[in-house]
Amino acid sequence: MSQAVYGEARGEPYEGQVAVAAVILNRIDSPSFPNTISGVIFEPGAFTCVSDGQIWLAPNDTAKKAVLDAINGWDPSGNALYYFNPATATSKWIWSRPQIKRIGKHIFCK
Amino acid sequence: MLKRAMIVVLALGLCGTAAWAYKEHREKEAVLLNAESTYQRAFHDLAYRVDLLHDEIGNTLAMNSRKSLSPALAEVWRLTSEAHADVGQLPLSLLPFHKTEEFLTDIGNFSYRTAVRDLDKEPLSDKEYASLKKLYGQSADIQDQLRGVQNNVLKHNLRWMDVERALAQGKETKDNTIIDGFKTVERTVKGYDNADLNSPSFTSFQNRDDHYEHLEGKMISKKQAVATVKQYAGVKTARKAEAKPNQKGARFSFYTVRLKDKNGHETTADVTRKGGYPVWFFNKRPVGKQKISLNGAQKKAADFLNRHHFEKMDMFESTQYDNVGVFSFAAKQGNVRIYPETVKLKVALDNGQVIGFVADDFLKSHQKRDIPKPAISEKEARARVNPKLDIMESRLAIMTGDMNREVLCYEFLGVLHDETYRIYINAENGNEEKVEKLKNTERAYGKSI
Lengths: 110, 449
What we know:
The complex is a heterodimer of chains A (110) and B (449). Chain A has 110 residues and is of the alpha+beta class. Helix content of chain A is 40%, strand content 11%. Chain A has 5 helices and 3 strands. In chain A, strand 2 and strand 3 form a beta hairpin. In chain A, helix 1 crosses helix 2, helix 1 crosses helix 5 and helix 2 packs across helix 5. The model of chain A has no long low-confidence stretch (mean pLDDT 85). Chain B has 4 domains: 179 residues, no CATH class; 72 residues, Roll (Nuclear Transport Factor 2, Chain: A), CATH 3.10.450; 82 residues, Roll (Nuclear Transport Factor 2, Chain: A); 60 residues, Nuclear Transport Factor 2, Chain: A (Roll). Chain B is built from 10 helices and 12 strands. In chain B, strand 11 and strand 12 form a beta hairpin. The C terminus of chain B is likely disordered. Chains A and B meet through helix 2, helix 5 and strand 2 of A and helix 2, helix 3, helix 5, strand 3 and strand 7 of B.
């Protein structure tokens, strides 16, 4: 899980990394997503870092701490189920989701 | 002579390149086929399981005795969870397919609830029977449509890799049988009204307020939000401070506050606009060498809570990660511990400062509760606990039981085979509500998480 957070959000502020981890956990709780961590992360097309292989980079300590904080209940995303980087997002659909907040380069939405 | 030699060398080179390219092509093909096979497998599994699901729901309709009904419902539950997992393996994330997934989850929850219930004491109600009948019809529609797609896939040798490519490129207008088929399924499910599956008697989180509507207090200004965070995070002077309101999709309105203290370390927090309660904060300063014990840090955490009007809270879990202690506290009403109302704190073990705080659960569920008198005594409850357990602690507690109901329980903390367990016995009927194995207090960072 920390690999996914590192692959997706390294270079983001710390709370942005916790938020990405929180989104993974929120998806597990949601009826519309798979029910396991690996199910959510490896859902085809769900996370770009899985598609482009960045998930296999070795995560740093910050990413690991961010995951622990998310597991312990910190959710800076405001219960988000999606996030995207407006500069690189390819799907139009993602813009239609109600947005909650922006952390660093990512917009988090429902 | 030289010319001929050159021609031979170049020709050999060309052959070599061609051979290499062919090999690469074969390897790429193999990888693609491999990926395609996983998709195909997930798809045909899905079609098959929806088939079975429909049949199995049909069986439950025809059954009458509890003995055969419960296992059949459990089978429905298993099938929905497998079908759900199959959907998760298909490249559909860019295609809205959520309603179908929710539909599967709803059937799953419904069948689980009825499967674990004692159907002799509480048989299926007419309403539940009607729901089941409706589900039977609905699953038939989905089965039909999926079969249609499956038929096309097999007949025209359609590939999921093409679906993935089409979705990734956003060319959804292009005629694509698979995409269209799945869209039809989604549209069909959208038309279903299954509100009765989640009838009020089963409402999850009945005492939870995700939108923080019960919070008391006035709307606060940005300035007040910054002041609150400064006070909580123990930042006296801020070099830089800003507060940003949330965007439209949030479940309650809040300010996100960012502070920079005089050393340039950042603190971030969300503060509710109504009442100005901090939902969470992080102080992102680096933590130095450990100077105080976990125990000392616990006192600091308790002091912090007392100072900020979280009085009478019980510490129930502590963990240490590197030089940071993490503590969980639960609220108390009278002598009853309220587990749904928890806050967590991170304390830096170099100087005892609270560097993290989260009160989301507390804010969602904090309220004055009518706690009923326990119907059984602690002694009676104790008799229900596995006699092999060595009980160390006991108390009354409200916890979140199965189906997310809040239940008044006797909580027993005990040791069995060197592991510590928390066991909850329902104070009303003596049922064993939940058994929890506690994690070891310290967890190494080296483990993969």
